[in-house]
Amino acid sequence: MTTETLPSRTLQRQRIIIPLLFVLILALGAFLRFYQLGEAGVGNQYYAAAVKSMLQSWHNFFFVAFEPGGSVSVDKPPLGFWVQCLSAYFLGVNGFALALPNAVAGVLSIFFIYKLIRRPFGPWAGLAAALALALTPVAISAERNNTIDGLLVFVLLLAAWAFLQSVYTRKVGWLFLGVFFVGLGFNIKMLQAILPLPGLYALYFFAAKYKWWQKFLHLAAATVLLLVVSFSWAVAVDLTPPEDRPYVGGSEDNTVMELVFGHNGISRLIGGGLNRIRYDNPRPPGGQNLPYLPQGVTPPGQLPAGQQPPVGGYPLPPLPGGGQQPPVGQVPPAYPGGQQPDQPGQSGSDGVMDVGTPGTVRLFTFPLVGEIGWILPFVLGGLIVIVAVLGFKRPPTDQHAALILWAGWLLPEAIYFTYSTGIMHAYYMIMMAAPLAALFAITGWAFWQLLQKRKWLALGLLTLLAAGTIIFQAVTLTGKTSAASWAVGGAAVSLGIGLLLAAVSRPQVRLAAAGLSLVLIAVLLAPGLWSALTTFNSTPNAGLPYSGPAQEDSLGQKNGGQINEKLLTYLLENANPDGYLLATVTANQAAPFILATGRPVLTFGGFGGMDQVVDADGLAEMVAAGELRFVLNQGLEQRPEILAWLKQNCVPADIPGLPAGGPGQPEKQIILADCGK
């Protein structure tokens, strides 16, 4: 229903009701994102340690140094962490401050999706889009964490707003502002920011009111600006002599350009380079983070009976009964019952890693269905209704332009996430949240238009889509939560009442509109329940956020990674106060020490353990210069040349209260190598 066709009294009533409903939706979205924000700890410790390190110097800040000594950077561009640094500067490095920018961005995204949908489709459609985004589970899980994807989505919504303005106003300056925002997104998560670009460029090319050759020129010029903004920081880093900056974490040749097109490029598309990554995060629901073991290393489950694996050499799967992994630096127990982690190419309980198996049903089955799939059947079917209602017009209307944008954003991403074999995690699905919410609302608008012209056809199609989606949601919820019956029952009642009101009322009256609204609410009840369970999950996976309730096979990180206190005390008492506290193989091993002390912690291999930050010769030089004394003996199988050097030049540290030993004493593994004696 458009406001132009309403009586003046109804318009006056709506001027009160619509802002009130909008405020309530914003309040709901804010509650789901801010309730006990940060209570579960600092979130992803890799990112949290980087923020703490960046706050120690402008050098670390600009180069996104992972550790205070500035030896290696994180494997992401800087903008998202610069925003987190601003928050942490005033509020301290804690869970609330680190997650705050994402949560704020999430609420602002709800505001913007309302504005973007309201202009072409009216305020009621805007409210539907805002409510759908407020209740999207993956948006809540990601925006309650210190991952930077919520900020990325907000910036891309700003880009969508600018692109639409360029079409609405016929002013090319808005186009350049739009690509500027996309460039900012690139400096948050690199190539992930260009996923909506097909929709944005298609919007301008098909809907802007210029001659074809003019639009080609405009888009070509905009692309140049996009490249300049996107690669400005990368070029600045790569032009800096390597000795004057950190090693570029995640890269194979110490350049940001290789990081862009390698680890954060091809690896995200087809998995090239996955063998360079070692995941130390806890197991998320639906699958183990795959350990890529060095060639020739025996998996723990294949060791002789009673023999323990090398200390810290493997990321442990959760112990039976919800057992915790041992603190950093503590000797881990043998795998119970010969259990071994999932091997590359195998599935966990619900899928490979935390994203399921690539294939047509990937977004409709756990684990990804819980993130983004709840209303996907309704929206995909609704696209046919939208196209039928809008038809083809030349030049395109504002409504056609919006459809080009949101469909051009959603569909390529849905295809990519469905079939990608590259590096991916469940919370990446937040990239689909905004266009999915937009198209959900536009589907509701299209059904309202159809009700005015062909009432019974509209009711039949609406029943088919809504009831089918709710049945799909019921099957999805079965066995996942005790509240499933309430959500499904509530959805069925809301659907029945809504369809009845729409059937018995004339299409123009308010009861018909109320009936359609109840149908849309019915479709949102299941994701709303899943979102509430996400907010009230007191033990979320901090490293790899996911939506829904706590899982029995996942390790909650309420207080983040733990450090063996005896080990930490020994290091603080014996390490050179002007040098590195210790050295580790991976960044995830180092992060807890950085967060606990703020001291430099050398990481030989960056995040995954395979970066060439320091080799054996470099280690020898640092030890000789007094810059480093202690090396954590966990995961060194990934760096055999360093392990060989340690065996020849270091001795086990004698830590009061902790075991130490050497070859032939597997029950007393070396926890810390002392290279300063």
Describe the 3D structure:
The protein is mostly helical and 677 residues long. It has 2 domains: 7-36 and 75-235 and 354-535, no CATH class; 565-674, no CATH class. It contains 23 helices and 5 strands. The strands form 2 sheets. A 3-stranded antiparallel sheet has the order 3-5-4, with helices on one face. Helix 8 runs antiparallel to helix 15 (398-419), helix 10 (197-207) runs antiparallel to helix 15 and helix 18 packs antiparallel against helix 19. The longest helix has 28 residues, at 212-239. The termini are far apart. Residues 273-326, 329-352, 553-560 and 661-668 have low confidence and may be disordered.
Features of the shown structure:
three-stranded antiparallel beta sheet, two-stranded parallel ribbon, 23 helices, 2 domains, elongated
Question: How is this structure best summarized?
Answer:
This protein is an all-alpha fold.
Helical residues, percent = 40-55%
What structural class results from the helix and strand content? mainly alpha
- Indicate the radius of gyration in whole angstroms: 27 Å
Adjacency order of strands in the biggest sheet = 3-5-4
What number of domains?
2
The shape is elongated
**How would a textbook summarize the main sheet?**
3 strands, antiparallel
Q: Extract low-pLDDT stretches.
A: 273-326, 329-352, 553-560, 661-668
Count the beta strands. 5
**Helices and strands, in N-to-C order?**
HHHHHHHHHHHHHHHHHHHHEHEHEHEE
In whole angstroms, the N-to-C terminal distance is: 80 Å
Number of helices: 23
Beta-strand share of residues: under 5%
